[in-house]
Amino acid sequence: MTSSPITGTRDAAARTAVEVRMEGLSRRYGPVVALDRLDLTVQPGELVALLGPSGCGKTTTLRLLAGLEDADDGRVVVGGRDITHLPASRRDMGMVFQAYSLFPHMTVRQNVAFGLRVRRVGAARRDERALEMLDLVGLSAQADRYPHQLSGGQQQRVALARALAIEPQVLLLDEPLSALDAKVRAQLRDQIRRIQLEVGITTLFVTHDQEEALAIADRVGVMRDGRIEQLASPTEVYSRPASSFVAEFVGLSNRLAGEVRAGQVVVRGVALPLVDSGTPEGQAVALVRPEAVTLASPSSPEPGPLVGTVIAITFLGATSRVTVDLGDVTVLAQLQTAEAAALPTGSRVALSIRPDPVLVAARSKPAPVPGDET
Amino acid sequence: MAAVTSAGETPPGATAARRAGMQARRRRRLNAFRYAVFAVFGAFFLLPLLAMARFSLEGARLGTWSVKAWRDIASYQGTGIPPLLSAIEITLELAVITCAVMLVLLVPTMIWVRLRVRWLARTIEFLCLLPLTIPAIVLVVGLGPIYNKIQHISLSALMLFWVYVILALPYAYRALAAGLGAIDVTTLSEAARSLGASWFTVVVRVIVPNMRQAILNAVLLTWALVLGEFTIAFLLLYTNLQVELFSISRNTPNAGVLFSTSFAALAFAFALLAILSFAGRRGGRRSRYRP
User: Fold this and answer.
1) Residues of A in contact with B210 (CB under 8 A)
2) Has the ipTM of the complex gone over 0.95?
């Protein structure tokens, strides 16, 4: 439980979370369109992750929302109030940056209390609030240390405490985990989610790491060329991607030639349901997830459309990724490591494809490179 | 069982020991060379200073000691020139004013350029470094008409601060630029802004404290420049400490006061250097920045 230095309310979670609305936001840098009439609504208390490749406009979106940059067009409405032309210092938003942004000359406690000091909160209340926030992120023991005495993960936790200390309307997280090692990253990711739920604050999280986005968000917005390609729950984004870009950006996909007919796509003799029932009939490329592919020893050594040779196995821990050469195309399959161990490199295997709904891309796409992460 | 080594073969342990011994000898030779160089250069700088100090303490008779020359600093008045003490006061005031104006002018400008108008950075750098390339005599010729006008308003030698600020720009700019380059000004200022800080708060409470060492360096260089400046003050007919010392040596050859004052000025500059560098080290240790 946290309390408000401004209102004196003991329970911050009880504070009304606000809706964030971005309407037709545009931003250009010379000839480059960073944001192209972007519309996005974040529900009160919701955590939306913006996911996309470098240069897709996700950080620009966050910076426009924070007021660190001006939009060329469109407006930003937070809690029903138009804040498009409000300076960053008056937007009441907490932000955690990708780079370590703690003030090096201040202790951890002073860093967390900085926003309150700027708001002229009394010293005693400031100190109390700073310690509450440090307690929330589990760093109260480090209150009197300087930033250079902390690890990267600890610094980002302090930055989170500092952002939350001012009890902002909206929390903005700009790739806060990207500079951390994998283990700390996973821990801090879970901690951020726990705290966000505990505080109940509307949050926008920017990342280029799909796993991070899918793990933490209520909804994921996949961005491309300054626009949101799909905004949906993580499950939907993964299992029912709105476009081939989303399908290929979120997770790995095998690109297999097939034919759409009668509301299905037939891939190497296997009929698979379509995500989009309105897909026009004809030649197409089906995007099949590696986990929808299973492998077994073939009942007959004869070659067939779904019989191939294992050419590589990538160990990923609990699972392994097996690359199978079907002659005219290679296919990725994600299996439990124990199952993959039974299929050594060079062995003949028979593929089967689980009939999950698949998305199809136009046939005119470039030559398929299975498993390529875009 | 002891290891068997064939004739002519060196055991690995012996090779390592020999290598370590060679490294130790090389280290000792290098250290001896360092101390020798340090001693030679130390003597080169210190001996004249010690001679100056000794001379300033020379009594009325050769070989005797006296602090009279040091006592005279406060009351010395040469023929046709202002009192020595007033020249010292003027110079110190000039140093303080020049440092203050330089900081007020340069620090916010450089931060602003770094944050908002980066495309101006090269132009600002060029303008700030320009005085380095202009000889003092050319500056005086250029500034002559301006100082003619200034002298209509005030005859005080404190008016020299205008030209001293210009002279200090290259040194102060370099020191401050190094300090700014060592911190992520953009991220720090954006973090502070997002926490509700005004631009003034960002500069005063966030960026300047992290430039403390750079600011101290800029102050030190400016201070040293003002304390040692002679040409421009002399040519523009102002009397600062250096001009006063020159006048004493030319008109009233009281060598004792001349040397005691010069030595005091140098000692003061060294003490300031030591204080600033000590203060900078302490601050630097506390706020070591790791981007």
Assistant:
1) 103-105
2) no
